[in-house]
Design a protein that fits this description.
Elements (H helix, E strand, L loop, with lengths): L1 H27 L5 H8 L3 H4 L1 H13 L3 H7 L2 H21 L3 H29 L2 H30 L5 H5 L1 H15 L2 E2 L9 H19 L1 H6 L4 H24 L14 H30 L5 H29 L2 H21 L6 H28 L6 H36 L4 H27 L20 E2 L1
Antiparallel strand pairs: 1-2
Helix pairs in contact: 1-7, 1-8, 1-10, 4-7, 4-11, 4-18, 5-18, 6-7, 6-10, 7-8, 7-18, 8-14, 8-15, 8-17, 11-13, 11-18, 14-15, 14-17, 14-18, 14-19, 15-17, 16-17, 16-19, 17-18, 18-19
Length: 483
């Protein structure tokens, strides 16, 4: 009987892990194809970037609602809705006749992705026993941090032979297979409660996180002096965020919060979130900056760009599960602190060594070091942050963690690309050749990344090991898998 239930747990997690990996992989596959899409639809760079900005903006708006959704609705229902949205969005993207339809497709894809990621984390914490939790979270960290790193590699391979439409076509059959398998294998997990839905909190959440992500994503316009809209959006987002947080604190006292802020009263959760925020900012910033540098300064083809970024992503995927096992013996800090140092060190190394004739092997080495550091940070901190919470806060903690990962990714991408653009423009106006100016701008981007790395190092020192695993239903996990 116990063996049968264990297989059931494995089937549930396998379905969710594969589905989540497909969706998150999709998040960064378009980064190399943006220039081609600009030409096909005759749009400018500030317009085409909405394919990335719009995706992150939608994620930031939808994810805060998932704490409520997971507690209110059954696992199977949430999963089927997420997969259906992703499949519809992928089909729309593959067949998009106009840029507007393509943008709408990305928004619909993002809705599905925003739901599936917190669902994976919450289900893992609920059904996996504490002694096996970090090993499983190591696999989850592959999904959340490695998949975006592999996106450009897969996109480069596809674009070498096909058009950008096939970046969407690739997702459709895989997602359909996952959906069909989920119909037969996925079971409902945990118990649901009839929590009232607070519409005003959703509106505040959309205005807060939407304003902040938009402000970060367009901050280059503010720095260059072309528009003050990013500053207005950021300030408005911060104001609405303050109102949102206050309302959640009030509602949380009555058990009605859309996103329970009491998770931040747990020290491990708070400092882990800060570190992961900076890590995701550096990671997505690097994933977007390096392809631009490689293609514009070193004249590398999209296919080779993808291959150059492959070793780091693959190595991170290989070591993450092993780091999960090491965590069980040493705890989070001996892993997270060296990991943050490696991430920050690789950013500073890139800052000092980038030029218009940098060896590709040096770029690969720096990227590999960065990804090893990412694995050392993500696996233990995602485990200890959520495991430090009481069971009733799992879904809310997961939603908070995933929301701030999106904010971190948006902030890191925007800040590093803005620094690169401004640095390149300054170097060009000083008379540098185009490739040298691009390299100079890229140095500025990794200077910003290095500063984020210092913040990550400082926060990681405050994360401590759990004295005792919190009492949760996961200690008798299989009993909480419902038909």
């Amino acid at each position: 009987m116990a063996e049968t239930k264990q297989r059931s747990v494995g089937a549930i997690l396998t379905v969710l892990v594969i589905s989540t990996m497909v969706m998150i992989l999709n998040e960064t596959t378009l980064s190399i194809a943006l220039s081609t899409i600009m030409a096909d639809f005759n749009v400018t760079a500030d317009v085409v970037q909405w394919l990335t900005t719009g995706f992150m903006l939608t994620m930031a708006i939808v994810i805060p609602t998932t704490g409520f959704l997971i507690q209110r609705f059954k696992t199977r229902h949430i999963y089927f809705v997420a997969m259906a949205l992703f499949i519809i969005g992928s089909l729309m993207g593959a067949l998009a006749p106009t840029f507007g339809v393509l943008l709408a497709a990305r928004v619909i894809q993002a809705c599905g992705t925003a739901i599936i990621t917190p669902l994976l984390m919450t289900v893992t914490l609920t059904i996996v026993p504490p002694e096996r939790r970090c090993a499983m979270m190591g696999i989850n960290s592959i999904v959340i941090s490695v998949a975006p790193a592999l996106g450009p590699t897969i996109a480069g391979l596809i674009l070498n032979f096909f058009t950008w439409h096939y970046l969407f076509w690739l997702m459709v059959p895989i997602a359909v297979i996952c959906l069909v398998i989920g119909i037969f294998l996925l079971q409902n997990v945990g118990e649901n409660s009839a929590i009232p839905f607070d519409v005003f909190s959703v509106i505040l959440s959309a205005l807060a996180f939407g304003g902040i992500v938009y402000g970060f994503s367009t901050i280059g316009q503010l720095i260059s002096g072309t528009s003050s809209a990013p500053m207005i959006a950021l300030l408005a987002g911060i104001v609405f965020l303050a109102i949102f947080v206050y309302r959640q604190i009030v509602l949380g006292k009555r058990g009605r919060a859309l996103l329970d802020m009491s998770a931040f009263s747990v020290r491990n959760f708070t400092f882990s979130v800060i570190t992961v925020f900076c890590a995701m900012a550096m990671m997505l910033g690097t994933v977007n900056v390096l392809p631009i540098y490689l293609q514009s300064a070193l004249m590398v083809t999209p296919l080779l760009v993808g291959l150059l970024l492959l070793p780091g992503g693959l190595l991170q995927g290989i070591v993450s599960p092993f780091i999960g096992r090491i965590y069980d013996n040493v705890g989070p800090r001996p892993l997270a602190v060296p990991g943050a140092i490696l991430m920050a060190g690789s950013q500073w190394w890139l800052y000092f060594m980038i030029s218009d004739d940098t060896s590709l092997w040096l770029i690969i080495t720096a990227h590999v070091i960065f990804n090893i550091g990412m694995a050392l940070v993500m696996t233990p901190l995602m485990t200890v942050s959520l495991s430090s919470l009481p069971m009733n806060l799992y879904s809310h903690g997961s939603a908070i963690m995933n929301t701030l990962q999106q904010l971190g990714g948006a902030a890191g991408t925007a800040i590093m690309i803005a620094a690169m653009s401004i640095g390149a423009a300054r170097a060009s106006s000083a008379g540098m050749a185009a490739s040298a100016a691009q390299a100079a701008g890229t140095q500025e981007a990794f200077l910003a990344g290095g500063i984020l790395g210092i913040v990550a190092i400082a926060a990681s020192f405050f994360v401590t090991a759990l004295d005792k695993a919190p009492k949760t239903v996961s200690e008798s996990a299989p009993e909480h898998v419902a038909a």
